[in-house]
């Protein structure tokens, strides 16, 4: 990465598309994790990364830190920038973290409203897919996509050409057969399951617990100046991010427990040492 600022050699340019348009900045990314149960919500983990690094690339460090801090078997609610079938599988297998968030929808569903990948039945032993009309594909072949292992599945042209659901399936009248890219079996099963679940009211109600995190982002930015870096270098910037989170927690705790009160505590049993 080239040097962008003559004052801070570690500060880099990045841009991000948001609902309100394109956001551009020079500096870093701050990732915050907060509690979302009963009682005051407090920020419990802060990670500072270079600005061009994608959100999902910080997830491994976030989970390592959460586990090191004593969070066992947590459920971590994240937005779409942090979640893929790979990250769900890695979080559970490596750190025991249940990662919950919206997996990207099937892009074919946007192109045409017909059959999506979830409508096809895989036979993992025979290495084939069967379409909703009962046609079985050729055995799939290993391929690569975005640097990761993928499975390329092609259906026979003669069967697709005469199929009454051709337009509904392929979205085209051209002389082409349906082509589908699968993930390896464990990841494909995660993707199919999460895509199905996230379309349900029950999943949306469960995920709604994350709604308050946007208020935390707004609070740390507008009330505490998070986006105005007072230091140079990522290490010192991380100190600012941690202090900002600590200040936010103090304000929240002071509002939840007024002066003269204290959080409830569990009684602690103690034993006196034996006298010498």
Taking all residues together, what is the mean pLDDT?
A: 87
pLDDT under 50 segments (min length 5)? none
Q: What fraction strand?
A: 15-25%
SSE order: EEEHEHEHEEEEHHEHHHH
Q: Characterize the main sheet.
A: 3 strands, antiparallel
Assign an overall shape: elongated
Please give the alpha-carbon distance between the first and last residues.
Answer: 65 Å
Please give the share of residues in helix: 25-40%
Helical element count? 9
Number of strands: 10
Written overview of the protein:
This protein has 276 residues and is α+β, with helices and mostly antiparallel strands. 33% of the residues lie in helices and 21% in strands. The chain has nine helices and ten strands. The protein has helices spanning 59-68, 85-95, 107-111, 157-162, 166-170, 185-197, 201-207, 213-223, 234-256; strands at residues 12-18, 21-34, 43-50, 75-77, 98-100, 121-123, 128-130, 141-145, 148-154, 179-182. It has a three-stranded antiparallel beta sheet with strand order 1-2-3. A hairpin with a 2-residue loop joins strand 1 (12-18) and strand 2. Helix 2 (85-95) packs across helix 6 (185-197). The N and C termini lie far apart (65 Å). The model has no long low-confidence stretch (mean pLDDT 87).
């Amino acid at each position: 990465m080239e040097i962008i600022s003559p004052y801070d050699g570690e500060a880099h340019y990045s841009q991000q598309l948001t609902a309100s348009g394109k956001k551009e900045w020079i500096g870093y990314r701050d990732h915050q994790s907060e509690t979302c149960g009963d009682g005051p919500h407090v920020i419990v983990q802060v990670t500072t990364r270079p600005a061009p690094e994608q959100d999902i690339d910080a997830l491994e460090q976030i989970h390592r830190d959460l586990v090191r801090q004593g969070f066992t078997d947590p459920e971590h609610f994240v937005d779409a920038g942090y979640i893929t079938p790979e990250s769900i599988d890695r979080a559970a297998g490596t750190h025991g973290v249940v990662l919950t968030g919206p997996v990207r929808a099937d892009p074919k569903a946007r192109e045409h409203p017909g059959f999506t990948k979830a409508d096809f039945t895989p036979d993992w032993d025979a290495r084939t897919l069967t379409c909703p009309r009962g046609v079985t594909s050729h055995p799939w072949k290993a391929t690569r996509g975005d640097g990761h292992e993928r499975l390329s599945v092609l259906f026979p042209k003669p069967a697709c050409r005469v199929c009454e659901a051709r337009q509904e399936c392929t979205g085209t009248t051209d002389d082409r057969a349906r082509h589908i890219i699968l993930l390896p079996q464990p990841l494909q099963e995660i993707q199919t399951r999460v895509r199905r679940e996230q379309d349900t009211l029950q999943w949306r109600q469960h995920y709604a617990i994350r709604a308050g995190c946007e208020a935390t982002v707004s609070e740390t930015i507008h009330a505490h100046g998070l986006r105005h870096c007072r230091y140079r270098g990522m290490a010192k910037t991380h100190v600012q991010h941690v202090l900002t989170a600590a200040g936010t927690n103090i304000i929240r705790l002071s509002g939840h427990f007024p002066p003269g009160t204290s959080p409830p505590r569990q009684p602690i049993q103690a034993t006196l040492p034996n006298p010498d």
